[in-house]
Amino acid sequence: MNMSIKRLMAIFNKDYKDLSRNLYVSFTVVVPLFLAAFMGRQGNIALEQQYMVYNLTLCLVTAYIQCALIAEEKEKNTLRNLMLSPASTMEILAGKGLLSFATTLLVLGLSAFFLDYMPKDLIVVTAAMVLSAIFYIGLGTALGLMTKSAMEASVIIMPFVFVFSFGTSLSFFADKYPFLHAADYLPNAQLLLLAKEVELGAGFADVWSNLGIIAIWVVVMTAITVAIYRKRMVD
Amino acid sequence: MENIIEVRSLAKIFGNQTALADVSFNVGKGETFGFLGPSGSGKTTTIKILTAQMSQTDGEAFVFGSPAADLRKPDKRSKIGILTDNSGLYERLSVYDNLKLYCDLYDVSYTRIEEVLQMVNLEDTKKKKVAKLSKGMLQRVNLARAFLHKPALLFLDEPTSALDPVNTKHIYKGLQTLKEEGTTIFLTTHDMNEAEELCDRVAFLNKGTIQLLDSPKSLRRQFTDHTITVELVDGNKEIIDIGANGASKLYNYMSENKVISINSNEPTLGDIFVEVTGRKLS
């Protein structure tokens, strides 16, 4: 499969210019940063609380920005122009995901700085964060493709923000409601479990199952997103 | 002449509504082909099938010798340009930035932006934000985007519907230039003057079927009643047959200085459409 970097970067640059002038969407970047700065000042933050900020970043910044970008393209009928151009499905999806991805890494890095978080194995945690970001980009793209406007996107994302940001808390009630154990397999829960393992000295070999589960989410979400995208190419 | 578009017995049914029923036509290389019909006659559906945005229920559609559905492959799409009635632009970006994106997507030099903006009479507005453009200007930028990459085949769905006469002329001039460069143009419109001005051949589409297909000139000849109308100084108008008797009658009026004006009764495409379909074009 050939991928034109020129086309990919053209879409990225266009999205960057467009988003920088769209305060309604770009303002969401500030929310997790504000939360991280606020929590950071309190000192000695538990890992669970820190990861609530990171998972919120992945939902609000990664998934929501992606969802809003795609939904607006649909609303303004510009997505169809991209689909009718020589850009391939992967060039368009990757180009449109690149901005959310870059913004996510920046916000996660700054949040970690504010929270004074330095994982014992930076490479393992970074790999897990990158995989998670790809999943959330896929989620945002799929939701964006299913909505009709940027306004609708900001509503449809809400249940996902709840589940993927605060879903880790659901397992506290698992003793009473056993089906809630399923929440342990959510990507956000796996990210937290992996981070805890890393703090106990685990390396790649010890957390492969966590990475594997997140990777499965990525594969499934990518397949769903590509299928929805291809369906949207045709009326 | 090599056919760029070939359509055979094309049909499209939405639920229990027939949008297209047994439509067949060819469009030759370098030809400007007009697809004329009122709203809801199936013009846009045809464009959507030909550009692989929709699948047909029955029949065959070929573009550049391959099934139209092949245009879903990215490498095939660089040969076509499309302007539809709902083509969009990025409102927060300038005209230039919008076109620059498509230069990169189609691998076209940025110098082409100046050329296309000149063609649509918008060379002074390239730095303007799209959000600040009027409806007519938006349509012209969309047109510029559609032919930015000098497509071999250009689909235009009502290209001048939002334009004033001055800018419409600019567009016609631009399309004429593209035609001279060998671009094949598939144009849908309900503007008969536009069809007369631009099209080599036109097809009248009504209720999903083609009612007539020929050059505007041939159609006018086919439907003319071979008369002229002579307006006389006394205010009367006389319809005279074209022929020996009519010629002597006209000669007499003219030699007696009784004639104010002589008008051809050749029908317009609009008149022919109404006669054939019983419907007005709107």
Taken from the alpha-carbon principal axes, the silhouette of chain B is: globular
Q: Compute the average pLDDT of chain B.
A: 90
Number of helices of chain A: 11
What's the assembly state of these chains? heterodimer
Main interface by residue count = A-B, 27 and 31 residues
Supply the CATH architecture of one domain in chain B: 3-Layer(aba) Sandwich
State the helicity of chain B in percent bands: 25-40%
- Rounded Rg of chain B: 22 Å
SSE arrangement of chain B, N to C: EEEHEEEHHHEHEHEEHEEHEH
Find the structural class of chain A using helix and strand composition: mainly alpha
Q: Count the strands of chain A?
A: 0
Pfam families (chain A): ABC2_membrane_3
GO molecular function, one term (chain A): ABC-type transporter activity
Keywords (chain A): Membrane, Transmembrane, Transmembrane helix
Organism (chain A): Cytobacillus horneckiae
How do you describe this structure in short?
The complex is a heterodimer of chains A (235) and B (282). Chain A has 235 residues and is mostly helical. Chain A has helices at 5-20, 23-26, 30-42, 47-75, 79-84, 89-114, 122-146, 150-156, 158-166, 187-199, 208-232.
How would you describe this protein?
- The complex is a heterodimer of chains A (235) and B (282).
- Chain A has eleven helices and no strands.
- Chain A has one domain.
- Chain A is 74% helix and 0% strand.
- In chain A, helix 4 packs antiparallel against helix 9, helix 7 packs antiparallel against helix 10 and helix 10 runs antiparallel to helix 11.
- Chain B has 282 residues and is an alpha/beta fold.
- Among the domains of chain B are: 153 residues, Rossmann fold (3-Layer(aba) Sandwich), CATH 3.40.50; 41 residues, no CATH class.
- Chain B is built from nine helices and 13 strands.
- In chain B, helix 5 links the parallel strand 7 and strand 8.
- The two termini of chain B are 33 Å apart.
- The relative contact order of chain B is 0.15.
- Chains A and B meet through helix 1 and helix 5 of A and helix 2 of B.
- Chain B: One of its GO terms (molecular function) is ATP hydrolysis activity.
- Chain B: Keywords: ATP-binding, Nucleotide-binding, Transport.
